[in-house]
Amino acid sequence: MNTTELTSNSLTVVDPDLVTMMDGVFSDYRQAGAPAAPGARVGYDRNLWQRLDSLGLVRLTGAEQSGGSGAGWHEAAELIGAAVRHGVRAPLAEHDLLACWLLEAADQPIDDAVRTACVQPADGGAATGAPWAAEAERIVLLWPVGDEYRLGEFDSAELSLTTGTNLIGEPRDAISVDTSGIAGHPVPAELVDQLGRKSAMVRAIQVCAALDGAVEMSIEHVASRVQFGRPLAKFQAIQNLISDAAAEAALARAATEAALHTAVCTDWASSHLDFQIAAARSCTGHAASVVVRNAHQVHGAIGTTHEHRLHSYTRAALAWRSEFGSVRFWDEQVAAGAVAAGGQGLWGLITGE
């Protein structure tokens, strides 16, 4: 893929025509579609999926020899961000960046089925919170066997699934699989660790896009809304709310882009990467609290209605920040990393040098 120009929200060059195409596809879909009912379970649109597949976006980062488009994580981040901006819910990241990546890494065949991935806990119980499991056609499962892991792929229709949702109605299901009689494909524990890093990074990217959307919508609202004879944007208290939200969103994005840059440049192998991902998730988690509070405050009562688009950003940010590790968990990881580095190594840990 041609990468010729630096986009405003990326540390690397991404083809601007590709970014425009992604945004256009989701924009057309949002304008033609109807919003989901409040509290309803969300399913992805199969027609939209087929269109994305025809454009090479469903397996954007897959190897070309296995049917992918051969792009990278920066392009994938643009795709994920475009979907968030337009309120489109689909297992794009789970399919391409997680499930199909696992199959490629394990030298397993890949067809056109829609996939998601999850890890069975060590106690052999149900894998809970599996994203889009009941909506996917195949589930790539990792399960522990002694000190190793095995990988297997299952048809979702053949598994015992208990449906559930997150705060915005996206499927987060429980999967029960008896793997005692299944050999599976042996995979190294490092691959499972990398799946955890990539899963955490996906949610950080999504939260950042949601926060940016909430801030942009808030700026547009206060610039056009008139109160007491002048725009809301002229009131100092409103300016403070907007500036605080924008600063937190910018910090979250900077931390996330730094972690993604390190991950891509080192093929997810940097000794500093775990700390950087933890910092990114911590920053996005705390930023979500400020941005959500301030955005709803400046919008007033209109921002609490289902018809207003603000909630598609704010509720999404709150839902995603708690997945693949809570805010508290990532705070503790940041603290543990800093303590382990000690006074002599802390600066190098922060700067990645």
Automatic annotation (TrEMBL):
InterPro entries the UniProt entry points to: AcylCo_DH-like_C, AcylCo_DH/oxidase_C, AcylCoA_DH/ox_N_sf, AcylCoA_DH/oxidase_NM_dom_sf
Alphabetical list of Gene3D superfamilies matching this protein: Acyl-CoA dehydrogenase/oxidase, N-terminal domain, Butyryl-CoA Dehydrogenase, subunit A, domain 3
Cited Pfam families: Acyl-CoA_dh_1 (PF00441)
SUPFAM superfamilies, per database record: Acyl-CoA dehydrogenase C-terminal domain-like, Acyl-CoA dehydrogenase NM domain-like
Keywords in alphabetical order: FAD, Flavoprotein, Oxidoreductase
Annotated TM spans: none
All residue ranges annotated as the Acyl-CoA dehydrogenase/oxidase C-terminal domain in the record: 202-325
Cofactor(s) named in the record: FAD
Key word Oxidoreductase present: yes
PANTHER family: ACYL-COA DEHYDROGENASE (PTHR43884), ACYL-COA DEHYDROGENASE FADE28 (PTHR43884:SF20)
Family (UniProt): Belongs to the acyl-CoA dehydrogenase family.
Name of the protein in its database record: Acyl-CoA dehydrogenase family protein
Natural source organism: Mycolicibacterium septicum
